[in-house]
Amino acid sequence: MILYTLRRLGAMALILLAICAITFSVFYLLPDDPALDACGKTCSPERLADVRHAMGLDQPVVAQFAAYVTGIFTGRTLGTTGLECAAPCLGYSWQYTTPVWDLLLDRLGASASLAAGAAALWLVAGVAMGVVAAVRKGTLLDRGIVLSALTMTSVPVYLIAALLIYFVILRSELLPYPDYQPLLEDPAAWAGALVLPWITLAALYAAMYIRLTRASMIETMAEPYIRTARAKGLPERTVVVKHGLRSTVTPILTIFGIDLGGLLAGAMITETMFGLPGLGKLTFDAIGKSDQPVVLGVTLLAAFFITFANLAVDLLYGVIDPRVRYT
Amino acid sequence: MTTTPIEAAPPRSPGRLALARLRADRPAMAGLVIVAVLVALSALAPLITWWTGWAPETFDKSAIDPDLGGLPRGAWGGVSAEHLLGVEPVTGRDLLARVLYGGQVSLLVALAATAITMVTGLALGLLAGYLGGWVDTVISRLIDLLMSFPSLIFMIAVLSVVRDVNRLVLLVTVMAVFGWTVIARIARGQVLTLKHREYVEAARVGGAMTGHVLRKEVLPGLTAPILVYATQSIPAYIGAEAALSFLGVGVRPPTPSWGQMINNARGWFMTDPMYLAVPCFFLGLTVLAFTLLGDGLRDAFDPKEEAS
Amino acid sequence: MILQVSDLSVSFGGVQVVDGLSFSVERGRTLGIVGESGSGKSVSSLAVMGLHRTASVSGSVLFDGEELVGAPAERLRRLRGNRMAMIFQDPLSSLHPFYTVGEQIAEAYRLHRRTSRREARARAVEMLAEVGIPSPRERAGEHPHRFSGGMRQRVMIAMALACEPDLLIADEPTTALDVTVQAQILELIKRIQAERGLAVIMITHDLGVVARVADDVLVMYGGRSVEESPVRPLFKLPRHPYTRGLLASIPGSGRDAEGDGDGGRLRAIPGQPPSPPAFPPGCRFHPRCPLATDVCTSERPLLLGEERRVACHLEGATR
C-alpha cells in the first residue's frame, strides 16, 4: 500500500513534468511573442531585444524550461529584471505584475468554493434522486426524474446561467448582483455571489449523476445479495440503503473525485457567466491578454488537481471495496 | 428458473437483434428523427436561406430599431413572416439563417472530430493490444498523460495563440488530440481479451493471417462499443465547440456557430432573450437527440434484463 | 406440519409460471423438489418466502398454521430469516462483497432477536464454528471473497440458521460447487437438520442430491407437479415418463426409460423444457414424451394416488 502510493506519486510527478514540458514548448514554438505584447505598440527592434533579454526569452528553450522547473522548487530571479520570485515560482504575470503563484492562490478560493459547494449539492441531489428513481422504477415518479435529468443534461449551461441571473437577480431581486468576497471576510457576500453559480453547475452535474446512480442502482438491486438481504427479513429501507446504496456509490465516488479534480480549474464558463474571480476567469482573461505564464501556471495547477484526484480516488477505492488489492 | 434462459426463437445475429431492439425503442427513434431533421436542415441551409431570401451575413436595418439601441422591431426578438426566428440586434441579420449555418459548423466539427478520434483510437488501441511490448507501453503512457491533461484549458491556450490557420481544422485537430484515448482503451482491452481466448490462438496456429483474425474476431466485438461511444461523443463535441466558441477561441466571425451566437447574445439576454434562446434551443435539442439515440444504442447492444 | 402449501399458483404479468402446486413438509423431514430450469421450482420457493415483489400469488401457504398468502408484508418480513430461511445457488454473489461475513451473519440475528452488537457478533462466531469453519473468530472478520466456494456456502448456511428457523429452503445449494465439496455441504445440511429437527426443502435439478438427502420427492415439469412420492419407491419404480427420463439421464444409474436393453448409457430426454409463455396444452410433457397419445395433447392429467401421486394419462395403462 505504501509502496503503491509512492510509485503512484512518482508517476504523478513524471506526468506533471511531461505536461509542463508540452505546454511550455507549445508556447515557445508558437509565433506569439510575449515580449512584443510587453513592449507595447511602438516598439523599436532594439527595445524589443532589451525586453526579450530582460524576460529571459533570448535563452535557448531548454535553458528556459530548466529555469522554469527549478524555479518551482527553489524560486528564482526573473531574467535580468531583478524581480525575485519565491518558490514555488511559476513565473511572473506581466499583465498583473505579480508572481503567477500569488495570482493562483488569490483566485483558488473562489474556484474551490464554487467547486465544493456545487459538488456537495449535485452529489446529494443526484444520488438521492437516482436512488429514488431506481427503487420506484417504472412509476410516474421515476419517469418524471428520468425526464427532468434528460432535459437538464441538454439545456446549455449558458441558458441556465442567463435564466437564473435574469429571474433571481434582475427580475425579482432575490439576490444582489454578485460581488464575491472571501468566505472569512464577508460570509454573506460570499454565499450571495455563489448561490447561483452553485445551482448552475450542480444542475448540470446532478442530471448526469441521476442517470448514473439510477442505472447503477437498478443493476445492484438485481444482485443475488440483495435477495439474500430480503431473505434475512431486513426492512426494505435497510436493504436499499445499507446493501444497495453501499455498492452503488462506490463507482460513483470514483467519478465524483475525478469530476471534482477537473472542476477546480475547469468551471470556466460558469465563472465567466457570473463574473466570479476564480481560476477559470483568470485563465479566460489571461488568454485574452496573451499572459502566457498565467495560462501555463493554471494548466499545471489543473493537471496537479486532476492527477491528485485520480490518485486519491484509487486509494479511497481500496478503503471502500475490500476486494481491491494494490499491486 | 435457475440458470439458462430458454431460446424461444431461432438465434439471430447480435447486430440484427440490436437493430430490432432499437426499432422498438421509442425515445431512441425520436432521437434519430430529430437528428435526421437537424442534419437535413443544416445541409439544406443554402436552399432554405435562398427561399427565405435572407443570407446569414445580410444586414437588415429595417428590422431593428436604432432608437432602442438596435433592438429588433416587434415582439419576440423580431419574429415575423420575413424573419421566422427573428433577427440579431444591431445588425438585423436573420437568426434562422445564422442558426442553420451555425448548425453546419457545429455538426461538421463534431462529426469530423468523432470520425478522427474513432479511427485514431481504434488504430492505436489495436496496435497497442496486438504488438504489446514497448509499443503498448508508449501508447498506454500517452493515454495516461492525455487523460491527466486539463484539456479545456490547454485547448483554449493553443487555440488562442495559433493564428492564420483554418479555425475549423484547428478546432477539430485540437479536440481530436484529447478525444481518442477512451476508444483506444476499449480497443486495446478487446484485443487483449481475445488474444487470450483459445479460438484466436487456434486460428493463428492454423495459419490464419493477423488481418483475418482482426476482421473476424476483433472488429465485430468492437462494433457495439464504438457505435455507442461515437454517438455519445457527438453531443460532447458539439458542446465543446460551443464552449470554445463561447470563450472566443473557437470559430471566428463572420462564420456563425452556436457557441459564438450564444457568446454574442450574452449581453442582450435581458433586452432580447430570443437572441440567446434560439441558439440555445438548437444546441440543447441536438444534444438531447444524440443522447436519446446513444442511450438507445447502448441498451440495444447490452440489454439489461428487466427482471421481475 | 410446519409448512403446508396447497394449490399455489404464481404468475408474472399474466403469464402463469407455477400452476396449482401442493406439498407439505414436517419438522425433521426433507422434501426434494426436482425439475429442469423453467419448471417453476425456484419460483415456488420464493413465493413461500414472500420474496416475489411483482408476482401475483394465489392459493394457500400455511406456515405453522398461519396463512402467508395475502399476509401483510411486515408480518412476512418478521418470519423471513427468523423462522424460515433460505440459501441460494451461488454463494459468492449471494453474499454482499463489502461486508465481513461476521457482520452479515450478525445482521439478521440482531434484527430478529434485538440483541446487542456484541451478542450478535458472538453468535456469528458460534454459527461459523457450527458449520465447520476453522478459526471462526478470525474468519468472521474477513470478507466473502477470501473464502472458497464451499466455505462461502457454509457461511450462507450459518447466516440462514443463526436465528434457529423451523424451515430451511435450499435452492440448488450445491450446483455451483465442486463435486467433493457438494457432498460435504449436503452432509452438513443433513447433520444440522438431524440436530435441530429442521424442516428442509431441497430444490435441485440433480436426482443424485435428492437421493442423498430427501425423504420425499416432488417432481415438477412446466410449472406443475407431475409426480410425488417417498424417495425410495420413486427411485425403485418411477411412474411418470418424465421422472423415468430424468432417472435415465443420470450417468451410471443403470436405468433407461423403456428398458430396451442399453442400460447404463446416458440418455437425455429429447427436446427442451418449455418456457412459461409457451407451455403446451394438455399434459405439458407431451411434446417430449415417447408414450404420448391423443388425450395427452388436449387434456390436463390429474394428480392421482395416495402415498404416491402421479399426473399421467397413461397411469395404469402401461403397467
UniProtKB/TrEMBL annotation, chain A:
PANTHER family: DIPEPTIDE TRANSPORT SYSTEM PERMEASE PROTEIN DPPB-RELATED
CDD domains recorded: TM_PBP2
Organism: Nonomuraea soli
Gene Ontology biological process terms from the UniProt entry: transmembrane transport
Principal subcellular localisation of the protein: membrane
Residue ranges constituting the ABC transmembrane type-1 domain according to the UniProt record: 108-317
InterPro entries the record matches: BPD_transp_1_N, MetI-like, MetI-like_sf
Transmembrane intervals: 12-30, 108-133, 145-169, 189-210, 252-274, 294-320
Family, as annotated: Belongs to the binding-protein-dependent transport system permease family.
Subcellular location per the Swiss-Prot or TrEMBL entry: Cell membrane
Region forming the signal peptide: none
Gene3D superfamilies: MetI-like (1.10.3720.10)
Keywords of this entry: Cell membrane, Membrane, Transmembrane, Transmembrane helix, Transport
Name of the featured protein: Peptide/nickel transport system permease protein
A single cellular component GO annotation: plasma membrane
Membrane-topology annotation of the record: Multi-pass membrane protein
Tree of life domain: Bacteria
TrEMBL record, chain B:
GO cellular component, one term: plasma membrane
Subcellular location: Cell membrane
Name this protein carries in UniProt: Peptide/nickel transport system permease protein
Top-level taxon of origin: Bacteria
Organism, as annotated: Nonomuraea soli
Stored InterPro entries: BP-dependent_transpt_permease, MetI-like, MetI-like_sf, OppC_N
Record domain ABC transmembrane type-1: where: 103-294
Family to which the UniProt record says this protein belongs: Belongs to the binding-protein-dependent transport system permease family.
Chief localisation class: membrane
GO biological process: transmembrane transport
Spans through the membrane: 29-51, 105-130, 142-162, 168-187, 274-293
PANTHER family: D,D-DIPEPTIDE TRANSPORT SYSTEM PERMEASE PROTEIN DDPC-RELATED, OLIGOPEPTIDE TRANSPORT SYSTEM PERMEASE PROTEIN APPC
Keywords recorded for this protein, A-Z: Cell membrane, Membrane, Transmembrane, Transmembrane helix, Transport
Membrane topology: Multi-pass membrane protein
Automatic annotation (TrEMBL), chain C:
Pfam families associated with the record: ABC_tran, oligo_HPY
GO biological process: peptide transport
Lineage: Bacteria, Bacillati, Actinomycetota, Actinomycetes, Streptosporangiales
NCBIfam families, A to Z: oligo_HPY
Top-level taxonomic group: Bacteria
InterPro entries: AAA+_ATPase (IPR003593), ABC_Ni/Peptide_Import (IPR050388), ABC_transporter-like_ATP-bd (IPR003439), ABC_transporter-like_CS (IPR017871), Oligopep_ABC_C (IPR013563), P-loop_NTPase (IPR027417)
Biased amino acid composition, Pro residues: 271-280
GO-annotated cellular components: plasma membrane
UniProt record similarity statement: Belongs to the ABC transporter superfamily.
Keywords assigned by UniProt, alphabetized: ATP-binding, Cell membrane, Membrane, Nucleotide-binding, Transport
Gene3D superfamilies: P-loop containing nucleotide triphosphate hydrolases
Name this polypeptide is given: Peptide/nickel transport system ATP-binding protein
GO molecular function: ATP binding; ATP hydrolysis activity
UniProt-listed PROSITE patterns: ABC_TRANSPORTER_1, ABC_TRANSPORTER_2
Stored PANTHER family: DIPEPTIDE TRANSPORT ATP-BINDING PROTEIN DPPD (PTHR43297:SF2), OLIGOPEPTIDE TRANSPORT ATP-BINDING PROTEIN APPD (PTHR43297)
Region (Disordered) residue spans: 248-281
Compartments it resides in: Cell membrane
Basic and acidic residues biased stretches: 255-265
Location of the ABC transporter domain: 3-247
Membrane topology according to the record: Peripheral membrane protein
